[in-house]
Amino acid sequence: MTTNPLAALFTPAARADPYPLYHALRTQGPLLSPDGAMGAVGTHRDCLRVLHDPAMSNRPTPEPAEPQSFLFLDPPDHTRLRGLVAKAFTPRAVAGLAARITELVDAALDAAAERGSLELVEDLAAPLPIVIISEWLGVPAEDGPLLRRWSEVITRSLDPIGAADEETAVASAAAGAEMTAYFGELIAHRAGGAGTDLLSQLIRAEEDGDKLNLGELLATLGLLLVAGHETTTSLIANGVLALLRHPAELDLLRADPGLAERAVEETLRHDAPVQFTHRLTTRDTTIGDTVFPRGCLIALMLAAANRDPALHADPDLFSLRRKDHTHLAFSAGPHYCVGAGLARLETAIVFRRFAARVRQPELDPGSLTYRPHVNLRGPARLSVGFAAISRD
Questions:
Q1: Helix, strand, or coil (residue 40)
Q2: Which DSSP state fits 125?
Q3: Is domain 7-389 annotated with CATH 1.10.630.10?
Q4: Which end of the chain is more exposed for a tag (fewer CB within 10 A), N or C?
Q5: pLDDT digit string, tens, across residues 237-268
């Protein structure tokens, strides 16, 4: 075994379909590098156990000097910050965005009908979540492309176990600094106001006299922008791609729009936008027959766990007839994704409107390219041919 147990996943050949490799890695059981510094688990049982184990830390190593979003904190810090943010992410608040999401999806499809072409990522999957999170935060509409650029640059450095090169790391740090300065100005402008936008709500969020300080607020805004935009873009694109590759399933959705939510869950299980997460052992931990020493960084292969044959029959099959869509695409335990409801809502509306309006859609296989990431998986380009797009 190489020092990095997941090295094979970084080869270009694995980008289009890493799942055979996941199967092979999962079948080997828990993996540990010869020096004990890095490991990996890939069964649903093992990943779920680690995600719920309070002895597993989510703090980065080495810890950076600047404040971290609650994604990279452990209880009690994580519990406090997540609780404050969750006050703004209520189911009612998320549901209130449905009409605007539908309006944006239909506008994108109308524009595609007029052009006679649809590049799914650029025309729909990428713009939709950045507009929604920007509007919800109260960011000026003209700044949306700027936030998207920062988000795309920052995510290039998020592949696991030091995969990013120095140039990528430098560009990511610069984009992060620009974004921090931008949000700092917005916070100063909104502080003390009574605005109803998400940023104003986060500034005011309080529990038992506790509020987000400036560093915590800036880190949270960065997380909401990057995680909310990038992962939802890939979730939408992965799902539409799966439906195009399985036209019988698309026909089912077209006949029964109520299956849109099931299609979202099956996409999350079948081709999750986040393929990994990590935990650091704070004590020697035995998983199966493998002892992970204290200080070992364990990669949890969520995408492998979601297709675990011990959990699902025919796990590689994409099917809207599947009744059990159990998955770890949004993690589990204390770090379950706080924005899961919004991602689900946006994607379900796209699936429903795409199935209802796009007539005889067809994937242009020559157009399909994947993003360079290993961890954040999704198409970079995906052109869809069609006979027509109805005005329904």
A1: strand
A2: I
A3: yes
A4: C
A5: 999 999 999 999 999 999 999 999 999 999 99
